[in-house]
């Protein structure tokens, strides 16, 4: 099965699970977009810093928020919020918080925030376990490919369909 066919199946599964029902927020610099819920929340409300400090997904709180590139990030503690505010580029997910494998194949797909990997101190998210398995086979290769395609993918309006 080709990667495109696999991503199409992944997108259908994500859509059926309700994961693709979010919008995008234009970044302040106008150059990129960030994957946000209809309420403007990034990473579906998960704490971006906890992926690094606790090595697991942790749901953030509306009591601890910060805005970066037009998106609202939630955190599980004031300390995590402060860390993010001090270094948002370190903690914000790569590729605007869209599925890293999707970007590698030229698609703008939503994510399941429980499916993540930190590679070279950067956060990458995936739409589902199948996409993550593909991503993890050659993460460095996929990061390079996704990095080359990100500008074009970021320009897509809304989510891509398969």
Describe what this molecule looks like in 3D:
38% of the residues lie in helices and 21% in strands. The chain has helices spanning 3-16, 50-53, 78-86, 88-91, 100-104, 129-137, 139-154; strands spanning 23-26, 33-36, 61-68, 71-75, 112-119, 122-126. Strand 5 (112-119) and strand 6 (122-126) form a beta hairpin. It has 162 residues and is an alpha+beta fold. The chain has a two-stranded antiparallel sheet. It has a two-stranded antiparallel sheet with strand order 3-4. It has a two-stranded antiparallel sheet with strand order 5-6. It is globular and about 35 Å long.
Brief sketch in words of this structure:
With 162 residues, the protein is of the alpha+beta class. The chain has seven helices and six strands, in the order H-E-E-H-E-E-H-H-H-E-E-H-H. It has helices at residues 3-16, 50-53, 78-86, 88-91, 100-104, 129-137, 139-154; strands spanning 23-26, 33-36, 61-68, 71-75, 112-119, 122-126.
Structure keywords:
two-stranded antiparallel ribbon; 6 strands; alpha+beta; 162 residues; 7 helices
How many strands?
Answer: 6
How big a fraction of the residues is strand?
15-25%
Helix content: 25-40%
Shape: globular
Specify the oligomeric state. single chain
Main sheet strand line-up: 1-2
**Runs with pLDDT <50, length 5+?**
4-8, 10-32
CA-CA gap between termini: 15 Å
* Rounded radius of gyration (Å): 14 Å
Class of secondary structure makeup: alpha+beta
Order of helices and strands: HEEHEEHHHEEHH
How many alpha or pi helices?
A: 7
Largest sheet: 2 strands, antiparallel
- Average pLDDT figure: 85
């Amino acid at each position: 099965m080709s990667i495109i066919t696999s991503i199409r199946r992944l997108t259908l599964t994500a859509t059926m699970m309700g994961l693709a029902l979010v919008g995008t927020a234009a970044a302040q610099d106008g150059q990129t977009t960030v994957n946000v819920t209809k309420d403007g929340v990034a990473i579906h409300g998960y704490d971006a810093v906890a992926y690094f400090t606790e090595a697991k997904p942790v749901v953030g709180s509306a009591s601890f928020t910060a805005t970066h590139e037009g998106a609202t990030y939630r955190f599980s503690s004031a300390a995590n919020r402060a860390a993010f505010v001090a270094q948002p580029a370190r903690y914000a997910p790569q590729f605007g918080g869209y599925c890293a494998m999707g970007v590698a194949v030229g698609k703008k797909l939503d994510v399941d925030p429980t499916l993540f990997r930190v590679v070279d101190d950067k956060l990458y998210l995936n739409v589902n376990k199948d996409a993550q398995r593909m991503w993890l086979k050659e993460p460095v290769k996929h990061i390079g490919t996704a990095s080359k395609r990100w500008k074009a993918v970021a320009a897509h309006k809304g989510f891509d369909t398969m």
